[in-house]
Write a structure and sequence with these properties.
The chain is α/β, with parallel strands linked by helices and 425 residues long. Helix content is 49%, strand content 9%. Strands 4-5-7-9-10-11 form a 6-stranded parallel sheet. Helix 2 crosses helix 10. The radius of gyration is 22 Å and the shape is globular. The model has no long low-confidence stretch (mean pLDDT 96).
Length: 425
């Protein structure tokens, strides 16, 4: 973990300027009828989960170039996740991926207490074959034509639920790579029927207070068709399963230029939006740092979320980062991304909802979009920094992290990892 003295020293060097910036922004917002303390309070209480796999260096199907101090196991991963949260105070929970992170429940709980975090949704893995696995997922898992392979995938998901229940998680996320690469390879209807039959068995094993999140993706690893290809298919699946089933939206799992914010609105309207995997993309499922390519799209997503939040205080979708860090320090990228998610939330909170509703009612297209941009263009950095400072985090997390020398320290403790081979994670 980062030494507390390092954080306090770094903060002391930045505090005078922060107070001046915060006061100036407060005066500006006051003229717009906005109380900066109200916005700061909401930002401070917002949290986004970090993925355990996100603290390792990512890669592509061509190559992977490991960084220094790669985590060796789930406990190293949680140490790194704890660093992200200790500096940003924005990532209070970690999402595990099984079997990558499989460990005794007691050990996981103890580590979570040590690093000051809890557990978010569990993630199953039936898109890879594991050692000692009897049946291959080469031709699918939950929708495989072979009944024994489907049952193996069902059993694995139930195993994830059981471990999750033991450590305090409340949700299971299912993403499958099932699909086809050639026309005629699979019978579309029968394949979906097999998937539904399998997922119903998993759904039946959910504890009463759990949620099941199913995730759609247009392509990859299947390139002709995917069983859960789009939000419409995902919605139908969630409706078919029941009240504890919801749709998870990964920002990178859509075709370029798809209106994701409208998908969010549709799923919210009909009560089936369960959560997000935040990232960014230029071409496909690039898993780039959140907000690095299209921060306005991220803002527009949060505009829909804030709109619903104001109407329904019980609205509580799950939020998680899901990224692949190929050329950056993963801890730095996760911190930067968590802050970008908070930024989008803060900007969406600044939108003048009454003015926007009036523009919409009167079909004033130009002023409607200008009203949104008033929120987006507001520099809310001082709010984010003050929220972190008052919550015992770092005013400037990345700078503080670099001063701490954490990466060099863990590199001395963790053996270097070979870069041979490809793979996203």
């Amino acid at each position: 973990m980062i030494n507390r003295d390092t954080i306090e020293k770094s903060n002391s060097e930045a505090l005078v300027n922060l107070r001046a910036d915060y006061d100036a922004l407060g005066e500006h917002l006051d003229r717009r009828g906005i109380n900066i303390e109200d916005i700061k309070s909401k930002v401070a209480s917002y949290g986004v989960a970090v993925p355990s796999w996100g603290v390792g260096t990512g890669g592509t199907r061509f190559a992977r170039f490991p960084g220094a101090g790669e985590p060796r196991n789930i406990f190293d991963k949680m140490d790194d996740c704890g660093v992200v949260h200790s500096l940003t105070r924005a990532t209070p929970s970690v999402s595990l991926h099984i079997p990558w992170d499989k460990a005794p429940a007691g050990d996981l709980i103890a580590k979570a207490e040590e690093v000051g975090m809890s557990f978010d949704a569990m993630n199953s893995n039936t898109f890879q074959d594991q050692e000692e696995q009897k049946h291959s997922y080469k031709y699918g898992s939950l929708s495989n034509t072979d009944a024994a392979t489907r049952q193996q995938a069902v059993d694995h998901n139930i195993e994830c639920i059981e471990l999750g229940a033991a450590i305090g998680s409340k949700a299971l996320t299912i993403w499958v790579g099932d699909g086809s690469n050639f026309p005629g390879q699979s019978h579309f209807t029968q394949q979906l029927t097999r998937y539904l039959d399998s997922v119903k068995q998993v759904y039946a094993a959910l504890p009463e207070d759990w949620r099941l999140l199913t995730e759609h993706k247009m392509y990859e690893p299947a390139f002709y068709s995917t069983v859960v290809q789009d939000w419409g298919s995902n919605y139908l699946i969630a409706k078919e399963l029941g009240d504890k089933a919801f749709c998870l939206v990964d920002l990178g799992h859509h075709a370029p230029n798809v209106n994701i914010e409208m998908i969010v609105a549709r799923l919210t309207q009909f009560g089936k939006l369960g959560g997000f995997h935040f990232n960014d993309s230029k071409y496909g499922d690039d898993d780039l740092d959140t907000g690095s390519i299209d921060p306005y799209r991220l803002f527009l997503v949060f505009n829909e979320l804030v709109d619903t939040e104001l109407q329904n205080p019980n609205f509580d979708p799950m939020h998680m980062l899901d990224q692949s860090h190929n050329v950056t320090d993963p801890i730095e990228s996760l911190m930067a991304s968590a802050m970008e998610v908070q930024r989008a939330y803060a900007q969406a909170l600044l939108v003048d909802r009454k003015a926007l509703a009036s523009c919409q009612e009167n079909n004033d297209a130009l002023m409607a979009t200008a009203t949104l941009k008033d929120g987006f263009r507001t520099d809310v950095e001082a709010i984010l920094r003050m929220a972190r400072y008052e919550n015992n985090g770092a005013i400037d997390p990345v700078a503080t992290y670099r001063k701490s020398g954490y990466r060099a320290k863990v590199a001395e403790q963790r053996p270097a990892v070979s870069g041979v081979g490809g793979g996203i994670v």
